[in-house]
## 1
Amino acid sequence: MSRTRMLDKKLLKEIVKGVERTSTVELACAIANISEAAFYKWQARGRELIEAIENEETVEQADEIYVEFVESVERARYISCLPAVDTIQKAIKMGDVKAAEKFLSRRMPGQFGDYERKEVTIKSDSNADDGIGIALIPSMGSDNDLDQLLQQQQSDALLLAKTKTSELS
């Protein structure tokens, strides 16, 4: 990779084209013949300048290319997703139930997601420190008791922890 290139309009277009065509920064940088370090350095500089602009600070005209770099790369990332989104939409229109379910669970997790994240504290009867963890709670109808489910999961987790601890001892 070339490490001496400076960011200019031509290079910016090459990088953006690479981001639009690929799924990783690494590939986009290889296409544009720049190092990933340069890419991330320019991104950081652009974000600093965007923050300065938002704080109504003056930005030199020569530095505006870094702002354009951040904005163009962001736009290119979205553009790179369009073929996948189109494919998903076509699959849904053709009746692919799994694609529709996944789309809805991602787009509207509160209404169509299978699980919610809940933070729970697991208390044990030993002198060990209590721990905090994340539990995936299945979406429940009104006839299910959330407290009962949490207690059962807590008991199961404690039993599993004790079993594994005794196996390691």
## 2
Amino acid sequence: MWNRDSDTAARCIAEAKAYNKQRWNKSHMEPDFKEGDQVENAVEVKLTEEFSRKHPVFPVSLVKPYFQTEEDKFPSRKRNPTSPEIVEVEDSPGPMRKIIKARKIRLNGKDQRKYLVRFKNQTADKDKWLAEDAIPDGNIHLRRFRASSRAENFIN
């Protein structure tokens, strides 16, 4: 009985090896470069500290040939620096009365807090969402807003 089980196990292992070999050969492609060719993309990479626990060596089949960019081909060529876009900032409709609400939104992959601001002698339809640094006398108004929101949370 022991021999029959070991024979079955050996046969299953041999079939699995043959199946895996067939699948590998079907999808595997040899790299386009040969030993001794200059390849600027190394197989062993230097990882940043956050990835330091990852294995830095990758299979050669994942390495792709390096193509130089325009800056690499012509290092003496100067690129004209692009000028930043000038964005016109609207003037506020008047002096600020109070901050009504706060919300957190994601801009360019970073969380940013915006505040709904009500202006003096203006109706609610003129309220604007402004960033903290765009609020005139922001420190004073933000301190009042945070104190009032803490008081509301404490009462409820």
## 3
Amino acid sequence: NQLNGLNNKLVSQITCEQKSHANYNAKQLKEIESLKSTVKSLESIISSIQKASSLKDSDIISLENSDDNQLHNNSFLEIKVKELENEKEQVTQNSSFKDGLIFCLRSRVRDLEDELDQIVLQPHQLINDLKIGSAEADPVSSSNDYALAPLAKRGKTVEEVSYFLHTAQSLNLMKAK
């Protein structure tokens, strides 16, 4: 029952992570569209600057002040584009991290399912082993190692999930600074 509860909890967590990942991807797509719009605006500004450069000398003098403002705006927009590109890179890294965490959680669910299958297939043997406290409870059966193998895999999966959670906390601390 406890394993079923844990299994259901992990499946629920995976489902939530998948939904979160889908929402996150939708947000990324919106951000990409916003960046495309910014690029179009910059291209329009560049085009107007090119047109302004072909004007007569008398017109250039009258536009000199507006050109200075335009150059300042262009510098600002270039900085903003770089900031958005950096933010996009962070979003991509976070997405990769979530993919890794989902993979670990799925692995954990598979391990628990394997363990549950073993418990269902060998209930009497496992009960005897737990009562006696020894893997030598039934010298005829050598399947104890096989029955306990999912436990070893589970330990590794728990370590992987712990690593990813620690990494997530580190990333959140770095963002907070």
